[in-house]
Design goal:
mainly alpha
């Protein structure tokens, strides 16, 4: 199998959901166009994907699109904030106790 993406299957540092989406797309490529077998065998014909596989492929493409466009991080570290930004969850200061 010749990888067509930037990352080979199973070797990514991407979040698990992104890696799963990418691995599923490699599976889809192998289903539709398996290519030559090992040892120079005659290439096998691919098959049409089922409706469930097609829906999962569309969802996997959506995950990758959101991840690469920076719309979702899927578990990565949160984006860094500038020094002038207020804290995300400000801790309320305790009020002084008067007697």
């Amino acid at each position: 199998m010749t990888p067509t993406a930037l990352i080979s299957p199973g070797t990514s540092n991407a979040p698990p959901r992104v890696q799963a989406a990418q691995d599923f797309l490699y599976f889809c490529k192998d289903v539709e166009d398996p290519g030559p077998g090992l040892g120079g065998e005659v290439p096998q014909a691919g098959r049409e994907m089922s409706k469930q596989e097609q829906a999962t492929k569309a969802a996997a493409l959506q995950v990758l699109m959101q991840y690469f466009n920076g719309e979702m991080d899927f578990g990565d570290a949160p984006p860094s904030r500038g020094d002038n930004d207020p804290p995300m969850n400000p801790t309320p200061k305790p009020e002084p106790v008067t007697k």
